[in-house]
Amino acid sequence: MKFPIFAALRPAAALIALSIATAAGRLSAASSTAPVAVPPPPPQSPNQNAQGFGAPVAGLNITLSADFVDGQDEFKIVRTPATGLGPIYNNVSCEACHNRPTVGGWGTITTTRFGRTASNGTFDPLTQQDGSLLHAYTTIAALQETLPPDANTTAKRLTTPLYGAGLIDAIPDETIEANQTIPKPPGISGRAAMVPDVTAGVDRVGRFGWKAQHASIVVFVGDAFNSEMGITNQVYPAPHAPDGNTTLFDELAPDLTGIKDSVDPVTGLSGVQMLDRYLLGLAPPGRGRATAHSARGGQVFATIGCAACHIPSMQTGPSPIAALSNQNVPLFSDLLIHDMGSLGDGIAQGDAGPREMRTSPLWGLRTRTVFLHDGRAVTLNEAILDHDGEAAGTRESYSKLGGADREALMEFLNTL
Ligand code: HEC
Ligand code: HEC
Fold first, then answer.
1. What is the CA(19)–ligand 1 centre distance, in A?
2. Residues 270 and 306 both lie in one domain
3. What is the pLDDT of residues 204-254, one digit of tens each?
4. Residues near ligand 2 with C-beta < 6 Å?
5. Are 166 and 281 in contact (CB under 8 A)?
6. Do residues 204 and 215 lie in contact, with contact meaning Cβ atoms separated by under 8 Å?
7. Are 268 and 321 part of one and the same domain?
8. 153, part of any domain
């Protein structure tokens, strides 16, 4: 328990207020018509499409092929309070957010990060108040989380696509670190984010998430299962208490404090392990068809400096999964974090400071209709013009492009 003397420190009035809230909470929790907000129903999306999005990577062995299918089912299961949802959460299934153009893809849903930025720029994630991720929904009305009054910084985060995650997982730390020393145009640097890998107990190079906040799929999955859905698990066993109020949580949800993820008797795998196997096997986006000017656009992409951060490819190292071993990964990212100036989201997370963002992988870009960490851009032109900080020089070169070069660049981007 985080606040063992919580009650003793409270003035009487607050204690009364707390007990009223508690009673109301019990009442609404017991009532079947509890006035809790629920997320909009998830869209129906196909498991895979004709362009190969959502398919398993070629060459998975029989066991991993079966695990892929089981893991995909796990990814789609709609949870209810009876099957572990909540009490505070952001959506009912992984698919509810990751669904475009297929299961496992990107999505238009954003989550909210918050914290407090001091006058000297230092960021406080307000961990004591369950920062920095806001939980928008609850299964018990009295546990509804709200933005703490201390929060003066918020940022939306768009749901990222998961295609090819297994290949990104299999890139050795040293390969990403080596991108730091590749010669780059003036003003562009980038650094590897060193983040704790809670399964390995060591720091590793982060590569997943807008801030490169996690180093492996299994850690991200454990975090997402717990933080987005409330399913505590072996990787992230501690439940989130609303606004950090562990006393209220213990009082209203005393039966929800243990680990909820369990081993499936048929597969012998936990939910986290099944989701990990699914994402390890999820094929990378294939390239779209070349057009008349897309090759020229690729040259423009390199010449004006886009490729200094969105480097076309990296290699995986040896992997126990043959299909992921020593493979080319055409992701169009260096997986480094860069000071993006005014495009930074103001949140410090993992090793990334408030202005630092991971170079977004651009593979699969042709399926997207909104761009950047908060989905603010609805055209590629807007997304590029919002680049700042280390990318300011490249943005200026882009602005000066002649019409033909600019069109060629767009044709190229639309083949990704
Ligand atoms: C409420 C919507 C929501 C739900 C539910 C959700 N995600 Fe996500 N997911 C996101 C967002 C938003 C991001 C980007 C997060 C960030 O970087 O801040 C993300 C990122 C990820 C990433 C990192 C990908 C990358 O860009 O490198 C993985 C892996 C992931 N999610 C897996 C899952 C799994 C597995 C589940 C189910 C247990 C899940 N997500 C449920 C919204 C969601
Ligand atoms: C200094 C490194 C850097 C350079 C140079 C750079 N980018 Fe980016 N790019 C990023 C980062 C970091 C992001 C994520 C920013 C965010 O959303 O906060 C990004 C995001 C994007 C996105 C949106 C992707 C998504 O998932 O929403 C597109 C499109 C893009 N870049 C294209 C380009 C193009 C085209 C160029 C050249 C004109 C370019 N970038 C130059 C680092 C760079």
1. 36
2. no
3. 999 999 999 999 999 999 999 999 999 999 999 999 999 999 999 999 998
4. 188, 304-306, 308-310, 338, 340, 343, 357, 359-360, 362, 365, 371-373, 380, 383-384, 387, 390-391, 394, 398
5. yes
6. yes
7. no
8. yes
45 lines ligand 1 (CB under 6 A): no
Q: Which residues of the chain have pLDDT under 70?
A: 1-35
Q: How many domains does the chain have?
A: 2
Query: Closest ligand 1 atom to the C-alpha of 225?
Result: 38
* pLDDT for res 2: 30
Rounded to the nearest angstrom, the distance between the alpha carbon of 384 and the centre of ligand 2 is 7
- My answer on whether 225 and 338 are in the same domain is no
Nearest residue by C-alpha to atom 1 in ligand 2: 391
Among candidate residues 281, 314, 341, the one where a domain is terminated:
281
* Residue range of the domain that includes 368: 294-413
* CA atoms within 13 A of residue 179's CA, in its CB half-sphere: 31
DSSP string, 177-200: HHGGGS---TT---BPPEEEETTT
One domain, residues 128 and 192? yes
CA distance 363 to 310: 10
Tell which atom from ligand 2 comes closest to the C-alpha of 185: 5
Q: Which structure tokens are listed for 29?
A: 């929790």
Rounded distance between C-alpha atoms, residue 413 and residue 416, angstroms: 5
Angstrom distance (rounded) from CA 302 to CA 176? 19
Same domain assignment for residues 250 and 109:
yes
CA distance 223 to 245: 20
